[in-house]
Each structure stands twice: as C-alpha cells, then as structure tokens.
C-alpha cells in the first residue's frame, strides 16, 4: 500500500543551517497493516508521517502509495493528529458531515453516514454538542469519525492519544482496535508509548536518535482480537515491551 524508498529529509533551520532529520528510510507497509513508529524525541517520526501524508516533500528519495508517487495530501490518506482541529462553530454532526458534504454526497446520505460513524466511535447522543462542550477524549473521537468520514484507505495518526489521561487513552486504544478490526484500514501510527505500540500493531518500526534511521522493525506476533487484560498476563506481550524498552535505554532515552 505504501512504499518509502531511501527517504532523507533535510530542514533549513532559521539560523540557515541544514538539519538532517531523516536519513535513508526505506519501509514497505502492506494493505491493512497496523504499523507504529517509535523512537526518541526529535528522531523524525512526525516528519515521516507528514511525508506519507504529502504535507512534506522529502529532500531525497520518494514515498509512493499504490505505486503512485505521493506529491501532496489526498483524501485517500486521512490524518488524525493530537490537536483535534475540529471546527468550533460546528456541532459534532456538522464536523463529521463536513467531509462527505465536501465530496458532494447528498445531505441526507451524508447525515446517515455521519450518524453511523458517530455511533461507531461511541458518541451516540452527542451529535448536537459543540467541541467546547466535549472532553479531550470525546474530541479525539470526533476527530477520528471526521477522518473516517472521508473513507481514507490509510489512517495517519500522530500521537492521537498523547494528550489524554491513561484511562481515556486505554479506552480509545480499545475502540480504535475494534474499528480497525472491522474494516482493516492501513494505519500508520506515531507514538511515544512502547506499550501502546505493542498493543496495537502488527509491526513496530523502531527509529534511532536524530538523524532518524530505521533501527529495527519488530513484528508483533500476538493473536487478534487483542484484549489488554489478557495481554497483560501474556509473557510474549511483556517480552516485546521489555525488548523495545531496552532499545530506548541503549539510545540513552528512557520512556
Ligand atoms: N519545518 C521544520 N523546519 C525545521 N526543522 C524541523 C521542521 N520540522 C521538524 N524539524 C526538525 O526535525 C527533527 C524531527 O522532528 P519531528 O517532529 O519529525 O520528530 P519526532 O520524532 O516526531 O519528535 P517528537 O517525538 O518529539 O514529537 C527535529 O529536530 C525538528 O526540530
């Protein structure tokens, strides 16, 4: 689904110096896979996601989706970021309907689809609420529903649960997995949390300290559907977490 070929990214800092953020990244992401990117702060995780999103053009190398060069953002790749970026003047329903309406879907159909998505993300009953009336977790659910409403083939998630308290985060992880298990979209997920990456993913891409290179790709061979309470008792789950935590320790960056 996504192919990243020898991508390097150099940014010019305001002091007019070149800063190598990513160095020679090559990665293939299969259709329907859940892939997380982990690594020390500043190693270029978000930059890699933005390149796939088409928001950043790589200095060297190329990213492709289904064999086509990615030259800009597109509805086939839906971003879900930590800042929810909801329209404050639109209700939950209005926010979710925005995408389908933009795509020319008739009002009644867009509304029906959006109501179904709102229910799917666990917000039935809140359709007429405005963003300022929602908690952080609820806003992130709306943001997810809004992105899903574009029917993207790939979800690009940049620490979407990073700002949430532990309990809300766990619930959203569970819900995301349930949604993903239903329609198996390809997901590229940036996180700081080793546990989150292992719990969610088929593959964890561990990056080095800046300039970011791929240090290792760890296949997470745990059965699905996954339940956190079962996994917590599973030594294989613990082993993955310890193995990856040790890589953080090696890089001088504990989590
Ligand atoms: N637009 C930009 N201009 C200049 N430098 C940038 C720009 N965007 C990112 N960088 C630099 O590139 C490096 C990688 O940034 P990036 O945000 O991708 O890292 P990250 O791994 O996502 O970090 P964190 O985990 O802290 O969120 C950093 O050193 C950052 O300062």
Automatic annotation (TrEMBL):
Q: Which UniProt keywords apply?
A: ATP-binding, Nucleotide-binding, Transport
SUPFAM superfamilies, per database record: P-loop containing nucleoside triphosphate hydrolases (SSF52540)
List each copy of the ABC transporter domain by range. Answer: 2-234
Q: Which GO terms describe its molecular function?
A: ATP binding; ATP hydrolysis activity
* Pfam families linked to this entry: ABC_tran (PF00005)
Kindly give the InterPro entries that the UniProt entry links to this protein. AAA+_ATPase, ABC_transporter-like_ATP-bd, ABC_transporter-like_CS, ABC_transporter_ATP-bind, P-loop_NTPase
Q: Which family does it belong to?
A: Belongs to the ABC transporter superfamily.
Reported function? Involved in beta-(1-->2)glucan export. Transmembrane domains (TMD) form a pore in the inner membrane and the ATP-binding domain (NBD) is responsible for energy generation.
Write down what this protein is called.
Answer: ABC transporter ATP-binding protein
Which species is this UniProt entry from? Answer: Bradyrhizobium archetypum
